[in-house]
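batch_manifest entry 22 of 60
target: DNA 3'-5' helicase
source organism: Arabidopsis thaliana
requested by: lab member K.T.
priority: normal
notes from requester: please return tokens only, no post-processing; we will run our own comparison against the previous entry in this batch. if the run fails, retry once and flag.
--- input ---
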Amino acid sequence: MDFDSDSDGSHVSATPPRDSFPSSPPQLQSPAKHVPPVSRKMTSSSSRSKPKAPTHPPPNPSQEAPVPSPYPPPPPPSPLFTNLPFRICQSQPARFSSSVSSFSRLCSRASFTSVEKLKSDGVDFVPEPPLVEVIAPPKSVRRKPPNLITDTITSPPVKPMVFRSNGNGEGNFVKLNLNGKRGKKFPSKYKGVSKSRSSYSFRGKRYKKKEADGDGESLLEEESDLQKQIEDEANGFISSVEDAILAVKTEASDENLTKLLNLVYGYDSFRDGQLQAIKMILGGSSTMLVLPTGAGKSLCYQIPAMILPGITLVVSPLVSLMIDQLKHLPSIIKGGLLSSSQRPEEATETLRKLKEGIIKVLFVSPERLLNVEFLSMFRMSLSVSLVVVDEAHCVSEWSHNFRPSYMRLKASMLFSELKAECILAMTATATTMTLQAVMSSLEIPSTNLIQKSQLRDNFELSVSLSGANRMKDLLILMESPPYKEIRSIIVYCKFQYETDMISKYLRDNNINAKGYHSGLPAKDRVRIQESFCSNKIRVVVATVAFGMGLDKGDVGAVIHFSVPGSMEEYVQEIGRAGRDGRLSYCHLFYDNDTYLKLRSLAHSDGVDEYAVGKFLTHVFSTETKQHEKICSLVIESASQKFDMKEEVMQTILTHLELGEVQYLRMLPQLNICCTLNFHKSSPNTLAARSAIVAAILKKSHVKQGLHVFDIPAVASSICVATTDVLAEIQALKMKGEVTYELKDSAFCYTILKSPKEICSLSSHLTKWLTEIESCKVRKLDIMSSAAVAAISVSNTSELSSGAKQTRSLQSRIFDYFNGDEKCDSPSKATQNCAFLRADIKVKIQEATLLFILYCFAMYPKNVQLTIVCQNRCFCRVIAKPNSHQEPSRE
Ligand SMILES: Nc1ncnc2c1ncn2[C@@H]1O[C@H](COP(=O)(O)OP(=O)(O)OP(=O)(O)O)[C@@H](O)[C@H]1O
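--- output ---
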């Protein structure tokens, strides 16, 4: 088996689950005969049509309220068109009208911003956009964005002058003037306003007319009048926002907050959970916020960021997500970004802006946040009002997307090192158990949990059984209403090769589709996302790598070509549809074989004590014990050597740093092998001026005139940080003295203490890792079981197939996220044939390993055994004497 599944940071276990899978395995009929029970609506326009009539009458307050269902009501029954392979449903009304905001956002994505340009060039860091023009929206335009989950607060009669992200994606360029000096900081900026697009074209017309009239002077007067008017409007807006901010500072009332919301964002009211979260934060209470995808979590830290005096730090797991969030900050909030993959001079520029108070919201990776220098800078000169932990489920190893670096985010550290006043943890998908872990780590009291439904109510969910003809089934689905009329669709699949194969198949059938996976060059990925957002590509066939931070409002459907790895993954991925609030369609093709393959694959990825022991022995080898020596572990080669995924190695290293005993200190991850080319001055001349260059010359070997060296080795030799070495060569490059290339991404660390016994440590770590892996397998089982249940429910009761499946999946999702499902506990699995098959595979692999170990034991000590794994079933055992001779036996 040679899969190229995209990593989502998961690694899976060798322990099969023991309960909660349906008592009968997915005993499903032959896929070839099965017609996917997809119920659909007919749409009338080329894009998605707006639903016509409300499905659920508004509640009558005079009547006694029924016991509320925990899940949203299902879509209406569907009339059947029996000649089609799918059942077609009546359209369901949207819960709110088309989103102007989403549309403007969409437009903003169409333009190729500098941010995206940099991304496409493979640069992770985005320099701050310049302080540029501010385009005042025409007075007559008053956006009435939809409110997905509207709170009860009515907005005061304010006349908003919307000043949000300005349509070209470079929203965060206006300095926030919180010191009460109205407009004084801004005049120079607003000079540019008269040259803004709208006024420019207006001016052009006038020039022509007046020139023809020979009326030059009055024309100039009018020009300056116009400019003044725009300046006044801009200043008026700033002062209105300042007034609104002052009002909230004085009294954080619903009315004052709504007025600020209306002024800055143009929204009339808060959505469910937003106001409550904002008020808690402003009151200084750390808060855990669980809102569905696209429900507006970002606003819950953006508004406090305008009010609170200090900096708001937003910790995000992915650089691409940070870039996206930065881009979508309202223009009134100045933002910045720091990540460990930045170039030193970019980081220096952001740090300068931070110190000067220009940046109000800083997006930061957890690695960067925990960097010693970064922490000391904050300790010394900056005040942090709020730390936002975005995608907070990553803190917990029991979540679907555990990030070892998130483990390092502890309230104790955030409060003591950063002097943070308050923490806001946000997620869309967390089980009760994950929430408990996150809240305990971030010391958020249980009373401060704001949790709304994990799922929006504008989805029609369906599942069909599929098999060998899955591609054909997909095509039939996409050629049937409503899918055939949907403008933007995401198809999720598990493996990279599938994205190419399926997208080609769809293209061959005249469907405008493109494949997307993490193996594509960064430039291509950005281009595909861009084209999708600007509707140049209709369908993106992607792995899990696509969609984080994607805020395309009009994605009308999400199709799962295979069963997702967990409920969380499913909810996250379907959450990319219908962000504009319109009814959207989510279909899952369930294929029993794929499920078993995924399960078996998950098992074979598990770690064993032997590999962990080998890894630990390497980490604590004698040469690494030198005091303050910077050690490194090249990820790719280590992964092969120890047969471990990158995430597993990182998890172990993080545990060695943060566990009960601190054995090591993690340093920033970097490409450690540098090839340096001197251009202007001679190496010796530069070495005479710089201790770092001298150390480089000492520690490097010359290959074809180029100096090749190991950055940690150079840094260790003169007791400086690896970042200092990088900064030095970067500075030389800027002066034109050198050029250089970096390769070999590595974990870097220094050893503080060696364990007394590697054996017991590896046994302890293996047990913990196995539990984590076991949890992952169980999550897959639960997802699979929900899909199977939805398939079987479609044949029963009086509701339409689509409505039944929607309800069935909604109820499973609700139970999963709100029950106390213990994913890590050993389960009493129903041992059915399918499981047994998967388990037997694992047992065979374990037996093979035992056999190999036996071989090792049997060979005399002077014979070295090399085991080359050819695939998951076969391996070569090469025995050779402990010398450099050729293999003697295979
Ligand atoms: N009160 C509101 N009224 C109307 N629209 C809103 C409101 N609050 C936020 N929005 C809009 O909802 C959309 C989604 O917001 P946001 O990106 O913050 O969601 P999210 O919860 O962070 O989603 P995800 O979990 O997918 O990142 C944005 O376009 C945002 O402008």
